[in-house]
Amino acid sequence: MEVTSSEQCSACDPGKFNNFTAGTSCWDCPGGQFQSTPGETSCLFCLPGYFANGARSGFCESCPVGRFNDVSGSVDCRACPVGKFNDKVNATQCQDCRPGTFAQGTIENIVCAQCPLGRYNNASAQADCLECEVGRFQDDLGQTACLSCPNGTISTSTGAFVCTACPAGKTSLGFNENLVCDSCALGKYADIAGLNECLKCPPGSFADKLGSASCSLCPEGSFQDEAGTTFCKSCSPGRFAEEPGSPSCDPCPRGTSSPLEAQSFCQACPLGRFANDTGFLECLNCVPGTFQSAVGGSACESCPPNSVAKDFGQDSCELCPPGRSTNGFQRSLECEACLVGYQQPSFGLNCTMCPAGFFRPVPGADVCQNCDPGTFGNSSGLTTCALCEVGKYRDSLSLSSTTCFDCAIGTFTPGLGREQCEVCPSGRFSQSLGATSCTPCAIGSAGSNGTCASCSLGKFSNVEGLDSCKPCDPGKFNSKWNQTTCFSCQPGTHTADLGSSVCSNCSAGRLFLELAPSRVISVSLEDSPLVLGTRAVSPGPSALMQVVQE
After folding, report:
1. Based on C-alpha coordinates, what's the Rg of the chain?
2. Distances (CA, A) of 105 to 63, 128, 410
3. For the segment 270-285, what is each residue's pLDDT rounded down to a tens digit?
4. Using CB atoms within 10 A of its CB, is residue 514 exposed (0-12), middle (13-18) or buried (19+)?
5. C-alpha to C-alpha distance for 306 and 27, rounded to whole angstroms
6. Considering the entire predicted model, what is its pTM?
7. CB 3.0-4.6 Å disulfide test: which of 85, 331, 454, 489 passes with 493?
8. What are the residue ranges spanned by the domains of the chain?
9. Among the residues of 190-233, which ranges form H helices?
């Protein structure tokens, strides 16, 4: 612009400058520069991130999204290089796409996108993502690496975002970079697809083939106590496995045994045998004195008292026969004979003392003997009976043999051990029970059959031990009992018979005179100087004088 002298100097417009005095015009700011203030002598460089690409720029423009400017005075902004992006204005540089992403889109719209499934990016500022190698996979977006297929799965192509599960009986362990599934080894199994490792067969099972999808159970009678084996072990004798798949064999319970190996059950002990602990190979015989009457016994029972088991392996005990016992002891081997003074009348009973009144002089009695007549037993357990004492007896009809009985009155026993008492001989008697002898009948009495009686009227006894009283002679009498003599009739009386108890008066004209004891004479009334009117009749040494009234 031209300035006349009549005009004033004008300020350069924004976007122009004039660096001379007396200038006549202003110049446009060159590209990459700007001037926003009027009347300036120079333009300013656009800062990094800005640009000015035309004349007369009064300001710098911001670099748009997707472009940048890292120097001053630029006339344009550059596009972000491959793998970089810018999502802001005024950018002085582009940002690298981080690992796991890549740059895509137009220059004005470049963005970092996440690596898709099956791909990865492990570096920044990348324009694309790499495919996962064979045997690896990536099932997530924006990842910086691929993952190895887990054990039990494989990947056979690149770019896999999922691994394929190994079928049952197989797995992969990374040995072949998970490219193939390997069969499970012997003793192992995989029962479902995709197991990360083959499992050991648990105790009680086995796998004897490669690639097993399951383990076989050990059959009955066998076991396996370890994991991961190819075989089972047989149960040893004394043990058993009742169910398939046993991790161990159980010992045979009490009362059973197993003599063979590989058994699924134990045999019950037979009669007469037992097993008192577990794990018996053979049942034991009951020892003598014991028995077992049931199958499957865990102990033998002692023979009860008065029974025996003489041999091994008995299922019952034999009762002791009559006359023998075990004296109340159990577990006996022999029945012993009952001792003297003891009896055992039946099978299986104790020996017991002979009751009172019985005895046994020899051992082994079934029954005791009753005491013989003339003997007795007043206590139990007698080996012999005592003789009845003098004055006592016991006969075979006695109800009790525990005592002897007193001889009855009028009887006696003169010695020991009598069955019967003797009747006192004639003229003798016993007044008390249990007499050992008889006493003669006293004078004035007589007796028989063991008793004495007073002489009755008209009789007498003038010596001891008479069996009968004597009658009074004629002319004598006895009017009292128990007399030792007879009395003469008084004069004027008489007795004509023996044994008179009273004298009778003489009849008219007669009398009897006793001249002296034991002598009577007969005097007639004519001859008698003593009595007038008498006469003698029946003359003789013992004649009576009969007085006859003329």
Report:
1. 80
2. 18, 12, 165
3. 999 999 999 999 999 9
4. middle
5. 152
6. 0.51
7. 489
8. 1-96, 506-550
9. none
